[in-house]
Automatic annotation (TrEMBL):
Short name of one Pfam family: GCV_T_C
Entries under PANTHER family matching the protein: AMINOMETHYLTRANSFERASE, AMINOMETHYLTRANSFERASE, MITOCHONDRIAL
Gene3D superfamilies according to UniProt: Aminomethyltransferase beta-barrel domains (2.40.30.110), Aminomethyltransferase fragment (4.10.1250.10), Probable tRNA modification gtpase trme, domain 1 (3.30.1360.120)
Residue stretches making up the GCVT N-terminal domain: 94-316, 345-403
Residue ranges, compositional bias (Polar residues): 67-76
Domain of life: Eukaryota
Family label: Belongs to the GcvT family.
GO cellular component, one term: mitochondrion
InterPro entries according to UniProt: GcvT/YgfZ/DmdA (IPR028896), GcvT/YgfZ_C (IPR029043), GcvT_C (IPR013977), GCVT_N (IPR006222), TrmE/GcvT-like (IPR027266)
Keyword annotations from UniProtKB, A to Z: Aminotransferase, Transferase
Disordered: annotated segments: 49-88, 321-341
Name of the protein described by the UniProt record: aminomethyltransferase
GO molecular function: aminomethyltransferase activity; transaminase activity
């Protein structure tokens, strides 16, 4: 569908979807656990760790902070002990260190915040203007297989997987019963048939998600569903790499790379791989002739820019054809790493850097990824989404497909149906975007959103969940948050209590910066993408 004149030896069936990467922020080791729905104390924000300031002012960071699991029901009077285990590392750890990355603990992993002397702002702008590679290997990659895989996943989400075509993806959410709250957000991709789905979930939700799936599979096996729909096999793709190639020059870099490593008779038309679709390719895993891996290449990302995400197995496989690959090009200043290509993810990343060259592509860290996703109006789990928020409240009602709205056969179905119905029960709160203008301190998570009355009285109507200066908008202060229904209309003037001073904030449409997803020539691709703009409203 996406490729022309491709021998099966070089390309397998297209697979894997665009992976919308979501993360949990770092918490201080001694921080008291917080509930995700309560606004933080404003003073505490000054020392609370964040992605831009991982350790606050002077508090060392030794542990991640993840939202509570809905599966664990046992109560406890004392907070669980903080793990002293060192953070895990991704397959690109040696490359990060060789490039001088500033590493921070994040979602249980040691991850690059940025790559000095590049700054956060430079990496952000570079991604907007050229192309960057982000390491997102900390994300959890799953495979659900078997005759019951489709029905099983539909029993946990409001997605219409029947409507998915092969190698198409959909953004969805795993839900809590009976409230319809969000356990985690996810990308689900149908592979070659309805009996295999690739699923990516958040690193910060790893343990609770695994418990959620384990319990759901137990119930599946004990119910009539097993007999009616068939067996389901769940596999976590351990140690797989995942890199995100993002930016306006991402397509050119990937096209040049594929032309370099694939046989000359293989043609790849990336213009036909539109947002929300994917394919699979066999590419060199190392300098060793014939050592190759089959990678999943999906068009999408978490920055609002055009781009691709590449899922990479941890070890190579020797192909029967033993197709030799071209000699590696000479390294450029952008890829001056002396780290040997000891694993496929490192080798492929270095090859992309070398072939693209320092004028097109560089590495970028978590700080730039976070400011880019905020400008794109994308949610961060544990901040903008949690188990007390439904998709409708999150302004993501479109993830509930029309067929599923009618049947309601998913966790919290009756609640979500009522919230969507014209004469139903409207949600009590809605996620909104806020424009606070330029200058002054930015709105930060937990700050109160207020409605100012005719006599100057202030009524608290919500709180901020994400906020900061928009680098792409000349540092205009923007934010996302939740307000009472009725205060969510675009154009409504509200206020945000920033350090004791109420700043005017106007409700605006999201995304704050227009997204640039590739949807085909003049926006009309030959393949219909299933994923909608992740910042869009219902």
């Amino acid at each position: 569908m996406f490729l022309s004149r491709m021998p099966r030896a070089a390309f397998a069936s297209p697979a894997l979807g665009a992976v919308v990467i979501r993360r949990a922020f770092i918490a201080a080791a001694k921080a008291t656990p917080r509930t995700w729905t309560s606004p933080r104390d404003v003073r505490a924000l000054r020392t609370t760790p964040s992605l831009m300031r991982p350790s606050g002012i002077d508090t060392p960071v030794t542990a991640e902070h993840t939202p509570p699991s809905s599966i664990t029901t046992a109560a406890t009077d004392t907070p669980p002990p903080v793990s002293k285990a060192p953070p895990s590392t991704t397959p690109l750890n040696a490359l990060h260190l060789s490039q001088g990355a500033k590493m921070v603990p994040f979602a249980g992993y040691s991850m690059p915040l940025m790559y000095p002397p590049q700054t956060h702002i430079l990496e952000h702008n570079w991604t907007r203007e050229h192309a960057s590679i982000f390491d997102v290997s900390h994300m959890v990659q799953h495979m659900f297989s078997g005759p019951g895989a489709l029905a099983f996943l539909e029993s946990l989400t409001p997605a219409d997987l029947v409507a998915l075509g092969p190698f198409h993806s959909t953004l969805s959410v795993f839900l809590v019963h009976p409230t319809g709250g969000i356990i985690d957000d996810t990308i689900i991709t149908m592979r070659a048939s309805q009996q295999q789905f690739y699923v990516v979930t958040n690193a910060g939700c790893r343990e609770k998600d695994l418990l959620y799936f384990k319990e759901a599979l137990r119930k599946w096996k004990d119910s009539s569903a097993l007999k009616e729909d068939g067996e389901v096999v769940h596999e976590v793709l351990k140690d797989w790499g995942l890199i995100a190639l993002q930016g306006p020059e991402a397509k050119d870099v990937l096209a040049e790379y594929l032309a370099h490593v694939l046989p000359p008779q293989v043609e790849v038309d990336l213009d036909k791989v539109i947002f929300g679709t994917s394919f699979e390719a066999s590419i060199p895993a190392s300098e060793k002739v014939g050592e190759r891996v089959t990678v999943h290449i999906a068009r999408g990302g978490y920055t609002g820019e055009d781009g691709f995400e590449i899922s990479i197995p941890p070890s190579p496989a020797i192909t029967e054809s033993q197709i030799p690959h071209p000699k590696s090009p000479a390294p450029t200043a952008a890829a001056s790493s002396t780290v040997p290509a000891h694993n496929p993810t490192t080798y492929i990343t270095n090859m992309l850097l070398r072939i693209g060259g320092q004028d097109k592509i560089r590495m970028a860290g978590l700080a730039a990824r976070d400011s880019l996703r905020l400008e794109a109006g994308m949610c961060l789990y544990g901040h903008d989404l949690n188990e007390d928020i439904t998709p409708v409240e999150a302004s993501l009602g479109w993830v509930v497909h029309k067929r599923r709205r009618a049947d309601g056969l998913f966790p919290g179905g009756s609640v979500i149906q009522a919230q969507l119905a014209k004469n139903g029960t409207p949600p009590e709160k809605k996620r909104i975007g806020l424009d606070l203008g330029t200058g002054g301190a930015p709105a930060r998570e937990g700050m109160k959103i207020v409605k100012i009355g005719e006599k100057g009285e202030k009524e608290v109507v919500g709180h901020v969940t994400s906020g900061g200066p928009a680098i792409s908008l000349k540092m205009k202060n923007i934010a996302m948050g939740y307000v009472k229904t009725g205060c969510d209309k675009v154009g409504t003037v509200l206020g945000v209590d920033v350090r004791g001073k109420v700043r005017e904030a106007r409700v605006v449409k999201m995304p704050f910066v227009p997204t640039k997803y590739w949807k085909g020539v003049e926006g009309k691709g030959k393949v219909d993408a299933v994923i909608k703009d992740p910042s869009g409203e219902a």
